[in-house]
């Protein structure tokens, strides 16, 4: 996964200094600390003058090691995907019942009134039906609002 977490916090704690392996560094001097650590200073100090001889600077024993989190995307996708598949199956089963068209009336302003009857179906205002006309297009469905 993209998100990772550090697995070696005991040997590489947050805020520790990783020494440069190529040359000697005197990390106990105030000049080194103020030069290399501009924002939060080691040990929670905010100003170089607060550092004194008793300040301990953590030195990293090893490089940080990270491990990927277990992928959890499927948890968030499976619920909606199951609902979508169940709804599509329900529509497929209901669409196999025949519909009887009683009348078709064309009104002004390009409004068409289709009166139809379907077994075990009670229409309420605000509902919609999806009409599929295979003679017009095999793959297109059109939603229409119901009125009384």
Q: What would your notes on this structure say?
A:
- This protein has 148 residues and is of the alpha+beta class.
- The chain folds into two domains: 1-71, no CATH class; 73-145, no CATH class.
- Helices cover 20% and strands 22% of the residues.
- The chain is built from two helices and six strands; from the N terminus they run E-H-E-H-E-E-E-E.
- It has helices at 30-36, 73-95; strands at 4-6, 66-68, 99-107, 111-118, 128-132, 141-145.
- The strands form three sheets. A two-stranded antiparallel sheet has the order 1-2. Strands 3-4 form a two-stranded antiparallel sheet.
- Strand 5 and strand 6 (141-145) form a beta hairpin.
- The longest helix has 23 residues, at 73-95.
- The radius of gyration is 35 Å and the shape is rod-shaped.
- The two termini are 54 Å apart.
- 1% of the residues are buried.
- The model has no long low-confidence stretch (mean pLDDT 78).
